[in-house]
Amino acid sequence: MSPKPRPVVLITGASSGIGHATALALAARGWIVYGAARRVDRMQELEAAGCQVIAMDVTDDASLRAGVDRIIREQRRLDVLVNNAGYGSYGALEDVPIDEARRQFEVNVFGLARLSQLVIPTMRALGRGRIINVSSIGGRIYEPIGSWYHATK
Predict the structure, then answer these.
(1) By the number of CB atoms within 10 A of the CB, which of 21, 122, 125, 143 ranks highest?
(2) Catalytic amino acids?
(3) CATH of domain 8-152
(4) pTM score > 0.85 for this model?
(5) Are the C-beta atoms of residues 87 and 104 closer than 8 Å to each other?
(6) pLDDT digit string, tens, across residues 10-56
């Protein structure tokens, strides 16, 4: 009987915070980890821990496709997607420029959805897979100056 293959995971927003910590924890458990973020210069610790680093902007479809294609080409599968990339922009609703509000939705909602669309066919073909969407307490509890952020959570 052949040994069970190591799970393959893609984690967005891996340059800091929850994404960074998740990448390190899964790498320490023997997973094949692809950490993705716009700022690859902030991911040297992940590389040192054995993670693969991918430059990815969740608002850029070509960037998303290239990252997913690379993983499938190198590993022939993707077992887990951790949609963690996101950011908060705060201010009174009437003071936040609409372009900033749109960007918040592009990153926190549509980027997550598009990346999910790109990995689902591979997971379906394999008959397995898991997508984990990291959100925020901001989806349940709000602050007066967080209207746009809370709407994306």
Answers:
(1) 122
(2) 15, 135, 149, 153
(3) 3.40.50.720
(4) yes
(5) yes
(6) 999 999 999 999 999 999 999 999 999 999 999 999 999 999 999 99
